[in-house]
Amino acid sequence: MQLFRIFYTGMFVSFLGTLPLGTLNVAAMQISVGDGIRPAIYFSLGCLLVEMIYVRISLVAMYWVRRQKRLFRGLEWLTLVVIAALAVSSFVAAASPHQARSVILSNTIPRFLLGAAMSAINPVQIPFWFGWSTILFARGILGDRSDHYNSYIAGIGIGTLAGNCVFIFGGQLLVERLNTSQQIINWTIGGIFAITALIQLWRMLRHQDASENL
C-alpha cells in the first residue's frame, strides 16, 4: 500500500509539473503535428528516460547535486540557445510556404534520441524534483529504500508521459478537428518558444534560475 502511495504521488506531481508550457512538451506537440503521434511518443519516452535518471541521481547523491551549480549554469545557457533556435526555426517554417515544419525538429535524428538530448540539457527539472523529493522525505512518504525509489521513479515516468500526451494529442486535435493550419501552429509555437527564452534569460540575469534554486 505504501509503495502504491509513493507511485501515485510521483505520477500526480509529474503529471501536473508537465502541464505548464515548456520546451519539451511544446516540442512534443510540434513533432506530433509535423511527423505524427508515434514519433512524438518516442520523443517523450526519450525525455522521460533522462528525467527518471536525473531523479535517481538526485535521490542517491543529494549533497553532490547541490554542489554542481556551475554545471547547471552552463546547461541553462545551452538550453537558452536551443530554445531560441527552436523559436527562430518555427518562425522560419511559419513564414515559408514550402516548409511546414521546424528545421530543428524535422531533422533525421531519431525522435527518442532527440528527446533524450533535449531533456539532458534542461536543468529546470533537477531543482523541481530535488525540492519535491526533499518534501516527501520530510513528510515520511518517501524512505531511503530502493523499492521506494523504484516506485517513485516509475510513477514519475508514467506521469510525464501522460502529461506529454495532453500536448501530443492536443496538437493533433488542433489540426484535424479544429481545422487549424500548420502555419498558424508554427507561429504560435514559435511565439511560445520566444517567450520561454526571454523568461529564462530574465531569470538567469536576475539569478532566479535553476542553479540558484538548488
Contiguous helical run count: 10
- The portion of residues assigned to helices is over 70%
Q: State the total count of DSSP E strands.
A: 0
Low-confidence stretches: none
Q: Determine the structural class based on helices, strands and strand pairing.
A: mainly alpha
What is the CA-based Rg, rounded?
A: 18 Å
Order of helices and strands: HHHHHHHHHH
Count of separate structural domains: 1
Shape: globular
- Relative strand content: under 5%
Largest sheet: none
Average predicted local confidence, pLDDT: 79
End-to-end separation in angstroms reads 31 Å
What does this structure look like?
With 214 residues, the protein is mostly helical. The protein has one domain. The chain is 79% helix and 0% strand. It contains 10 helices and no strands. The chain has helices at 2-18, 23-35, 37-60, 62-66, 69-95, 111-120, 125-138, 146-176, 182-205, 210-213. α2 packs antiparallel against α3. The protein is globular.
